Protein 1
Amino acid sequence: MEVAVIGAGLSGLTAAYHLRERQVAVLEAGDRPGGVCLAGNFHGIPFPAGSAYFYYPWDDAWKSWYASLGLDLDGAIIAPPTSALWHRGGWLADCFSPKALPDWPVSDRDRLGLQKLVADLARWEEDWDVLGTRQLPEPQLDDCSLAQYVEQERGLSPEVTEILAPYCRSCLGGGPETISAWAGLYFLMAEWSSGSRLAAFPEGNARLTTALAQVLPRPVRLQQVVTALRRTGDGVEVLLWDRGAKEWRSLKAGVVILAAGKVAARRLLGGDWGWREADWERFRYSSYVVAALRGPLSLRAPGYENWVVGEPAFSDFILTPRNAAAGEDKVLVLYAPQAVPQGQATLLGQTPEAQAETLLAALERHFPGTKQEIKEIQLFRFGHAQIMATPGFNTWLRRECRTADGPLILAHSDLEGLPCVEAAIVQGQRAAREALAWLQAAKS
Ligand SMILES: Cc1cc2nc3c(=O)[nH]c(=O)nc-3n(C[C@H](O)[C@H](O)[C@H](O)COP(=O)(O)OP(=O)(O)OC[C@H]3O[C@@H](n4cnc5c(N)ncnc54)[C@H](O)[C@@H]3O)c2cc1C
């Protein structure tokens, strides 16, 4: 092949899409394309079992990229209120809209401080076009944690940090004390921005990966676990275990795009390649459980995304379909990021039944009566779910982390240092450009 793409998550599929005029093999270890963009379905009710929503594209190039995949973007815009905050037994609808700031459940002093912070974010937004770039705007913000920044630099009380915690844990893999102020503020900037809009399909971002996989000229090769990469005179030899046929295979490619995260990369890129074990040590991940609970739920929540403050067992939930009639079955999708560093041990140490019981008890604590309405639960477990942008990580990543070595190009969303679908798309696009340049150079 001219190109082998390893991993059919959003980044690998995006790379393959931009190389579709070339001879490309997409190799995926799992049973379906999509990676963490995973669709769920509970007796005919679709729901996002992994990655859920994206930002409505902010420029025409992005818009036409989505449109070229046949996606109805306007139909996917989330009706307001997009988010809501559950704090001390009450809801604050549209909590991340600047209009809701006067109603934030904090002291007058904190409210004023928050208004100033949101005004600064709106000002910075002009220059914070960070995806795909090597420079951090306001780089000093990457030196400290979000909690330090909020409390020490801005003089806000720990109560503000506590309110921001579920958002940070769910979207950035770690609480405000763990993630860098730079990463946290970059995400919050988009939430508070008056110009940004959230969009989602009923089955979540799996709609994007399915669309990408469908337009590729060759089907994704499933159940192909890549186990070694060897540099050859004119490209790379890819060794893989075909889980379906239960046999070893090898494939030669002029260029390889490795669109899998650290766990695969650190195993595949010793020896022949220019990465050191110490480079991979810097990549830290949160773990995640997504629980889908089905039943004729009477629980009402104003937002599409509903953040629950002060609950260690989960951070947020969505209720789908949003317009279900009373008494009809709904699915409550509960997002349960696992605390770092003990998260993986909890994830692996608990049986699914125990995990479900923990989540049900937590839900019942906040919304009594919900537990008895639930008929069935599905659990989805993500081991290395989200890259954690700890202080200094994005600075190091952009300055020092290499993303290619000759015919081998890395393309995982982790290389943006931010866990979001836009990061995966940008990385896939970059890798495709670099692969084309390499093929071009090899030809001449
Ligand atoms: C639970 C959850 C919810 C999220 N929600 C959102 C959200 O709402 N909005 C948002 O913007 N972002 C969200 N994210 C983050 C975002 O979805 C991801 O950053 C992005 O989709 C990752 O895409 P990727 O292609 O980089 O990686 P992955 O999806 O991890 O894909 C990597 C692929 O490589 C394959 N692979 C690995 N090793 C090998 C091997 N040796 N051989 C062959 N194949 C291999 C894997 O099986 C996988 O399919 C969420 C993430 C999680 C985990």
Protein 2
Amino acid sequence: MIKKISILSAVVVVIIVILAFSLTDNSDNKKTDTDDLIVQGDVIMPTKVSRPGCEVKDICYIPSSFVTQKGKPVTWVNHDSAFHSVTSGFYEEPTDLFDSGHLDPFESYSVTFDESGTYDYFCTLHPWMKGQVIVE
Ligand SMILES: [Cu+2]
């Protein structure tokens, strides 16, 4: 009887170990799949910024101020489920230097700056979304 119980518990332990391994494997695979799908960007538009609130902590674009060098492309990626834009200037005062148009979820947009300076930009759909690129 004791032998039966110890064999049974050994089987249970083996099953638990196998389950634990398969669960770990799955989560690893999921992470890799997601990483492949999402374009890596310099600046991201995080989730839930289509409603006001992100401006309080200045996280409508992350980072809200991005420092780069001349001639190096800056890439924005929309990580939100809503449309956003990257448009030069300020809300209702665009400067027409660059404009991504409406970016779909997970779409990216790049701009290469040839002159140093501070470039303010905003989202045409959400007036509270502001960011800037500092080109050195
Ligand atoms: Cu937006």
Protein 3
Amino acid sequence: MDAKLLEILVCPVCKGPLVLRKDAQELVCKGDRLAFPIRDDIPVMLESDARELAADEDVG
Ligand SMILES: [Zn+2]
């Protein structure tokens, strides 16, 4: 995924920074503990499509 694209992406919920998890192909908001999926290299920045992180999940 393009690093420059990642720089301009923010969480749609809190407008905070996102952490890229390459292994999972997800963008994670630590504040909201939400993981947004990356499908075919395109981040899906929809709260309705986001996954809630498990309580014991490490967000790096
Ligand atoms: Zn957020």
Protein 4
Amino acid sequence: MAKKFNQPLRMCISCRERDTQSNLLRLQCVETQLSLFRGTGRSFYLCKICQQDQKKVLKALMRQCKSGDKDKFSNILKEIITDDRKS
Ligand SMILES: [Zn+2]
């Protein structure tokens, strides 16, 4: 019953809202390339609301990845979100 209160909260990099890990999309950067988290390395989270607002999110993502290729990030983000919804 109280189980969900024990889940650690993670912060969305864009809006800085906190939520449980299962409600957030976990991403990482591999050599300044955006990807889904693969199990190792530094990662960050994106909430479901921010996934709908890519313009806002891209700034935060580029800050995380220290990369400025907005078009590339935008395309990769779209792919990741589409794949995430399929599974
Ligand atoms: Zn957010």
